């Protein structure tokens, strides 16, 4: 069966996506063809579309938070059946041979494949994915599951890097933070949310999801924090966060792209404070987090857009008009 597929395609960074139609490809060895049920819109998609990440595959269907149903199975695939629901994250493949893959750090693979960046993603009715990088997904609303696949997953990896912090600062309260805040609260942590000055809606949103305090990103919290995660792509927040954490604390940069970090006094780093970045995910992260998400009540806030309105979804994300996660529905 050769269904026709539609996809929102990027032809050049900075250009709007355009809807195109073509025959859906057959899955090669080891691969699955999915009928996409929902695909989340991630800030990384904005960085790809806006040309802030180098060398995307072009033309490209972006999107790496794919929830879909297996429609065709390539040669040699075991463990998947037609009609099963799976999720496809950002990590679309790894080389399995480099030093990082060998050391269990496949998130740092030297020759990776990234869904919706170096391979076509889920801004489409159909997508091809490596079965070894797909995960079974539970029943339920696919739009509410999609944001788990990056916002949730990368948020989880960032949260692990924050260590045992009880008082946790979160800078930028978008899709990732709104999931992480709920997971952190379920773990007994106290979340302090920092949002763009004047964005009262985002502040109230954070409080409604259990933050013990929410304020502007240039404000000081009421107490020193044990760790902070920065989801906003704003380098100036790094010294701000360092100034608000205790000795020995970690400041985790959760985004794939950030504006330059301004120079700052060494005293802010002194006291064994650490700045780390989170890069991609491992499949173990995905299995671990999807298990936790299944057992934790997480209220995923979703704004749905028809696939054809992907450009509007991206614009709303770029301009901060969203609460929670944007999701495309083909
Ligand atoms: Zn590798
Ligand atoms: Zn993402």
Walk me through the structure.
With 330 residues, the protein is an alpha/beta fold. It has two domains: 4-137 and 300-329, Alpha-Beta Complex (Quinone Oxidoreductase, Chain A, domain 1); 152-277, NAD(P)-binding Rossmann-like Domain (Rossmann fold, 3-Layer(aba) Sandwich), CATH 3.40.50. It is built from nine helices and 17 strands. The strands form four sheets. Strands 3, 4, 5, 8, 9, 16 and 17 form a seven-stranded mixed β-sheet that branches. A six-stranded parallel β-sheet has the order 12-11-10-13-14-15, with helices on both faces. A two-stranded antiparallel ribbon has the order 1-2. Helix 6 links the parallel strand 11 (190-195) and strand 12. The longest helix has 13 residues, at 283-295. It starts with a strand and ends with a strand. The relative contact order is 0.16. It binds zinc ion (2 copies).
């Amino acid at each position: 069966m050769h269904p026709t597929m539609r996809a929102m395609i990027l032809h050049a960074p900075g250009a709007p996506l355009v809807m195109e139609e073509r025959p859906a490809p057959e899955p090669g060895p080891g691969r699955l063809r999915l009928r996409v049920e929902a695909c989340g819109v991630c800030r990384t998609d904005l960085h790809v579309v806006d040309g802030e990440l180098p060398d995307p595959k072009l033309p490209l269907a972006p999107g790496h938070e794919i929830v879909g149903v297996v429609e065709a199975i390539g040669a040699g695939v075991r463990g998947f059946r037609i009609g099963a629901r799976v999720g496809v994250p950002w990590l679309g493949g790894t080389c399995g041979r480099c030093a990082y893959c060998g050391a269990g750090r496949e998130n740092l693979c030297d020759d990776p494949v990234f869904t919706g960046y170096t391979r076509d993603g889920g801004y489409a009715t159909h997508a091809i994915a490596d079965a070894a990088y797909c995960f079974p997904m539970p029943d339920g609303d696919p739009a509410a599951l999609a944001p788990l696949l990056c916002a949730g997953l990368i948020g989880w990896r960032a949260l692990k890097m924050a260590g045992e912090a009880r008082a946790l600062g979160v800078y930028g309260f978008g899709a990732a933070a709104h999931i992480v805040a709920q997971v952190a609260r379920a773990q007994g942590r106290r979340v302090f949310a920092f949002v763009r000055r004047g964005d009262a809606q985002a502040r109230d949103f954070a409080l409604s999801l259990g933050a013990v305090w929410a304020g502007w990103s240039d404000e000081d919290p009421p107490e020193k924090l044990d760790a902070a995660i920065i989801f906003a792509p704003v380098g100036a927040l790094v010294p701000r966060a360092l100034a608000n954490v205790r000795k020995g604390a970690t400041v985790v940069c959760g985004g794939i792209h950030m504006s330059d970090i301004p120079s700052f006094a060494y005293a802010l780093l002194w006291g064994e404070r650490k700045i780390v970045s989170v890069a991609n995910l491992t499949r173990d992260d995905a299995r671990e987090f999807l298990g936790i998400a299944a057992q934790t009540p997480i209220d995923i806030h979703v704004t749905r857009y028809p696939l054809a309105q992907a450009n509007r979804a991206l614009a709303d994300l770029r301009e901060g008009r969203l609460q929670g996660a944007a999701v495309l529905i083909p």
